[in-house]
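Sample 1 of the test manifest.
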Amino acid sequence: MNFKVWIILLFLTCLTFVIGYFNYVNAAFVAIILVTVMIKVQLIIDYFMELKNVTYGYRFIPTLWLLVVITLIAIAYYF
Amino acid sequence: MTKELQTKEKLPPGDFGIWIIVYVELITFGLLFVGYAFARRLDVALFNESQLLLDTRFGFVNTLILVTSSYFVVKALESIKIKAKKEASALASKWLLFAMGLGLVFIVNKIIEFSQKSAQGIDLSTNTFFMFYILLTAFHFLHMILGVVILFNVRQNTKRGAYSYENYLGMQTGAIYWHLIDLLWIVLFAVIYIIR
């Protein structure tokens, strides 16, 4: 599974770069970028940091951080 | 469902102290990311124009490097769980060396990027965008240096056989810190280099 996670992380990083490098960034693509950030960070939390098999309390703290930070960034961008 | 609950670990991996550090770092960087996003709202044009002066390729390559080095640290932890101790230490040590090597490449890349910006006359006082850019990337850069030092120490301990499949807490603790640096960079790359 960790190998798959690594490949997904590489793929999503390339996707983010292509959107930015070729100036495709607009309101819709910002949403896609923020979603890819959420997926990447959650994968690192669950698999690389091994919080997937830990009681929900400990897993929830970084996930909550991620949700709050990404939501506030989205609010600052869209509103 | 009950079976799943029973198999969950009660405490997170590594020394519990590292998780306190993780939470403090998440809050600190989180405030800076959100601060950047709301500062951008006040002058979107300035932030967009300034961002064009960044070379996205540096951020991209450094993200690939960090993600890969994180994976190598995961491989080191997988290796140390092999029961044959000599083989486990040798293999884990090799993966840690690769991870550390990539960490050093990241640092060199960042020094080149900082030098280029400095040569362009860009510093903390240039404008609000570059104030955040330098503050966030330099702060992360310091974490990278500490991370490489930690990996170096973990590798030294691994080489002298301090870890085994029964005791790898120290390596696990170092790994958590390394993944934290990776995680923070992923958000930083998207927010500072890409979103406009």
